[in-house]
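Dear colleagues,

As part of the handover before I leave the project, I'm documenting each prediction I ran so the next person doesn't have to rerun anything. This entry is a single chain, and its sequence is reproduced below.
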Amino acid sequence: MNHTSSNQKLNVMRKSGLKVFGTAFLMLMTTAIFAQGRMEHDGEKGDRFEKHLERMTEELELSDNQVKEIKAIHEKQQEKAEAVKNEKLTADERKDKMKVLHDEMRKEVEAVLSEEQKEKMKEQMKERHQHKKEKAE
């Protein structure tokens, strides 16, 4: 009886060990998958900015120096945005802070542009907003 009892305990321990190992493995894989998804998502954001900057460069005929300045502004704003994301805020507070950062960035970018480029950008923004309204209707 003693031998059977110890075999049963050993089997229970093996099963428990497998469950613990399986759970740990699933947690590890889930974390890796989410991390990979996060990196891909961040990459998409970076690609989106690059495409936006290319379009701005073409449409506004930005100089190389202006492109460098706008990239620097964007990088600085990304750091600020990341800090806001890490703060313990409500969704509304986070949205408000991000809007402030977005407005700051727009003003900084406008400061880099010539008057002609600013006017052209404002006109393009109006057209895009109008197009979005029409799509929504």
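The two ends are 79 Å apart (CA to CA). Confidence is low (pLDDT under 50) at residues 30-42.

All the best with the project,
I.
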